Amino acid sequence: MTNPADPPSAPATWNGGWLLQGARHSPSPNFGPRPDGAHIDLIVVHSISLPPGVYGGPEVEQLFTNQLDWTAHPYFEQIRGMEVSSHFFVRRTGELLQFVDADARAWHAGPSRWRGRDNCNNDSIGIELEGLEGEHFEDAQYATLARLCLQLAQRYPVAFIAGHEHIAPGRKQDPGAGFDWPRLQSALGWSDTCFPRDTLRHKVRPD
Question: In terms of CB atoms within 10 Å, which of 2, 6, 19, 80 comes out highest?
Answer without folding.
Answer: 19
